[in-house]
Design a protein that fits this description.
two-stranded parallel ribbon, 9-stranded mixed sheet, 13 strands, alpha/beta, D-Maltodextrin-Binding Protein, domain 2, elongated, transport
Length: 378
């Protein structure tokens, strides 16, 4: 029995190596994060029961948001296992780069943490023959404020304090504003080193929207993909910011929650004005996203989020990643694969994976519309 168990464990380990290698081959982005293919308890992710290959074939290129990379890796792994002969290649870069690639016609779809702007929609009409680019919300989740401060395992901040840290006005961790929010915590006088995204980023824009709405007196910058404030250091991608925070004592930065989870980075609890500070989690983000309103028209499902919510247990620094596609005028050679892959991502099985890995599924009412629109793509 011992020999049989040893052989089983050895076979299991070899299988894990094969899966790991497949993920490396299918993920072109630099935002490497562990845990793909398993849920929060380390067990295999949910079976991909809703995959319909429906004429999908060849290679599908996509690029954009690094915030959704870990979710896309899981979708790609399951999808390619079900649809033999199909290759989906998602390049994790940034929302800005993804939209540029989409409007240049080099990808079948792009991931963006911010909806297309009117001028970007207009530009997309050159690529989407007879149609235009639309926003399909596919992935939700909290933007975690991660920190690294020796001896401090729990930290509460509010919007004005976060704004004044990132605009370089609060420079040390024992600042009175931070001490007031953390009574009884021994805060060191360590200098604060804040990190931000160096490239155009939808995550940056969503953080800016939150700070502009929740702390308008402290954060006077308009929300934009390009980091607007003085000071701090830039890093590439969510993984780059997370890596810097992980390495530097006194550091603080922002990134999608799974980067904090995978690297054991501590995250800030938010004082939103609710009865208790709110932790960044899939559940707390879902409570905030559930209040979102569809503001897009026609097939466009762009959402408006409430960044100032004080609802109990709702974490307001959230982002929604959109898959940007043509409603009409998609390339004939990639259209079946685009519809098939995004159909799986929006399916019950595809959305369940999000819950298992720290993301927030899109609310059912909105997601049902996403499925209808994916089916209607032409």
């Amino acid at each position: 029995m011992k020999l049989q168990r040893k052989n089983m464990l050895r076979a299991s380990a070899l299988g894990a190596l094969v899966v790991s290698g497949a993920l490396v081959l299918t993920a072109c982005g630099s935002d490497d994060n562990t845990g793909a293919g398993t849920n929060a308890s380390g067990k295999p992710s949910a079976a991909a029961g809703d995959i319909k290959c429906d004429g999908a074939s060849g290679k599908l290129l996509a690029s954009g948001s690094s915030a959704q990379k870990n979710a896309v890796d899981l979708w790609v792994k399951n999808y390619m296992a079900a649809c033999s002969g199909v290759e989906v290649n998602y390049k994790s870069s940034s929302s800005g780069e993804g939209i540029v690639a989409f409007n240049q016609g080099t990808v079948g779809f792009a991931g963006s943490d911010s909806a297309l702007k009117p001028e970007q929609v207009e530009e997309s009409k050159k690529i989407c023959t007879g149609g235009q680019g639309i926003n399909l919300p596919m992935v939700g989740g909290p933007v975690a404020i991660g920190y690294n401060l020796s001896g401090v395992d729990k930290l509460v901040l509010d919007a004005p304090t976060i704004a004044n840290i990132f605009n370089d006005k609060i420079k040390k961790w024992d600042d009175e504003a931070i001490k007031k929010l953390n009574p009884g915590v021994a805060l060191p006088s360590t200098a604060i080193q804040h990190f931000h995204r160096s490239e155009d980023s939808g995550t940056t824009e969503n953080l800016g929207k939150y700070l502009k709405a929740a702390a308008p007196d402290a954060w006077t910058y308009d929300a934009a993909k390009k980091w607007p404030a003085p000071g701090g250091l830039g890093a590439s991608g969510s993984s780059g910011v997370a890596t810097q925070v992980k390495q530097v004592d006194g550091a603080i930065g922002y990134f999608e929650l799974s980067y904090a989870t995978s690297q054991n980075i501590k995250t800030v609890d938010l004082n939103t004005g609710a009865a208790a500070p709110v932790k960044a989690s899939a559940d707390s983000a879902s409570k905030a996203i559930a209040a979102a309103k569809v503001v897009g028209t026609g097939s466009d499902l762009a959402l408006k989020l409430d960044y100032t919510t004080k609802a109990e247990g709702a974490y307001p620094i959230v982002l929604v990643t959109y898959e940007v596609v043509c409603d009409k005028g998609n390339k004939a050679e990639t259209l079946p694969t685009v519809k098939s892959f995004l159909g799986y991502a929006a399916s019950d099985a595809g959305q369940k994976i999000l819950s298992d890995h720290g993301y927030a599924p899109i609310p059912a009412e909105i997601n049902s519309k996403v499925r209808e629109i994916v089916n209607s793509l032409s």
